[in-house]
Amino acid sequence: MTSIIADKVLKEKGLTWDTPIKDFYGSFKLPGAERTEQVTFKDLFAHKTCLSRSDFWWASGPDIFDVEEMMSKLQFLGEKCEFRSEFKYNNLMYVAGSHIIEKLSNKTWDVLIKEHILDPLGMTNTKTSFKEAFKTGNTLKGYEPFNGSFYELQTDADLIIDLVGQAGSVHSTAEDMNKYMRHIVENNGERYADLFWDQTAFDIGKYFGVTGQITKPTFPASSEMSDYTISWVKGQYEGEEILAHGGDTFTTHTFITLSREREYGIYLSCTGGLKARTTNQLITWFIQDMIMDKEPWITAQNICTYPSEWDDTPERDRSDPDWGLYVPDDSDTLKSFTGTYSHDIFGDVVVSFADDEGLQIAYQKVNCTLKRKKESEKEFRCHASAPSLPSDSRITQDARILNVNFEEGKLYSNMLERGENYEFNNNISPRLSLVFLLLFVPLFVMAP
Fold first, then answer.
1. DSSP assignment letter at 239
2. Is the Cβ–Cβ distance between 74 and 92 less than 8 Å?
3. 3-class state of residue 242 by DSSP
4. Is 219 exposed, middle or buried (0-12, 13-18, 19+ CB in 10 A)?
5. Model-level pTM?
6. Which of 145, 228, 374, 407 is the most buried (most CB within 10 A)?
């Protein structure tokens, strides 16, 4: 939806997806001169900037997420790869692009979505804000299984999504999504044809997302998501072209599949942890087989064992297989690591020491006790649970690993992102700085 309004506003202003943003928004700045001067809306919305996501900056739940401040800090994002060389998903690029569209149109993202999509299609029950959706009382509750019981998820955690709503989050109903899909499929995407069905929109890059690929003969079917377009992914199921799009909040996972050839749209939404993503995909395949008059290969017996019986490759251990190598440590020697560490994007991380517990780390609403890696004096980590999980420390299905390493007075952390290593500098307190000033000034005065 964000791409739709971006496309409309760009056309109204005589701009294209390939117009360098610097040409009309001079203050926009990303890491490196090449990115800053050449980056386009296509780069932002097709995830081709190759910059780190830094999702923990907003997903940890800051009380204030100032978009203007965010725009000024984009220049400090880590560079993951060479500009335009790979697909690297990044929510912040959608927020940035949407903010520029707001400036161009002099209208908010919420107003633009309502004006160009919701009102024309009669989607009266769709909200662009989770806060507004919760006010209606027409919202679902999510549950997470643990040890044979179900725990209610803290749905208020989804309010955090409003901080980056421009990245594509709306709170909708099956009825409203049916109106959206019907327009795209039955009217051949008349209102948004150039974004949904025009081949040039797909020739942007290869998709390396979580949907993955299944092929015969390992599986009884063939499914692949390959080309990333503006927000949507083009692929095939059993040789027939489809478009798909998935989205997650802390409590809910949604998946949409469209077929122009057979004129169908499938909308699925499940509550719960990350396994809900797989549930959506499995049910989609089942429905597609029925539409294509095929015997569904997903059945009541194998849906709960997928990917077995076809693939016995162990599922990736998201809880971190090395967790057992870390042990509690409350020795006084760790006190030397305490302090406030600062990063240009994330701001301050505070490391403190508690008797009988050891090092504590605090960032925004995340607080946890650091465990030390065996045979290492400077490497630590802790479980940082998703905001939606109940306050039961045993429930870690959707927990994330926070790595911390201390080197030469600096703190290095992945900030809950795999493959990241952000550098934080240790701040000297104002009082200590003043002491240094008082010590050095007399020396200069007394010098001959």
1. T
2. yes
3. strand
4. middle
5. 0.84
6. 228
- Inter-CA distances, 132 with 121, 126, 158, 363, Å: 20, 10, 12, 27
* Short-list 49, 54, 7, 56, CA closest to 28: 49
Spatial separation of the C-alpha atoms in residues 301 and 127, rounded to whole Å: 38
* Amino acid in position 121: L
Q: Contact, 205 vs 227, CB < 8 A? A: yes
Q: Compute mean pLDDT per 10 residues along the chain, 448 residues long, and list them.
A: 87 92 93 95 90 86 79 92 88 93 94 92 92 85 76 78 82 92 77 56 48 80 83 87 86 90 92 82 96 95 89 69 87 95 93 95 88 95 72 60 93 88 77 40 39
Ranges of CATH 3.40.710.10 domains, the chain: 1-133
Q: Just give the CATH number of 1-133.
A: 3.40.710.10
Q: How far apart are CA 216 and CA 302, in angstroms?
A: 17
CATH number 2.40.128 is the correct assignment for the domain at 323-431: yes
User: Other C-beta atoms within 10 Å of 410: how many?
Assistant: 12
Parts of the chain belonging to CATH 2.40.128? 323-431
Alpha-carbon distance of 446 to 161, in angstroms, equals 59
Phi, psi of 188 (to 5 degrees): 55, 30
Q: What was the pLDDT predicted at 391?
A: 59
Q: What is the pLDDT of residue 393?
A: 55
**Closest by CA position to 150, among listed 392, 355, 357, 425:** 392
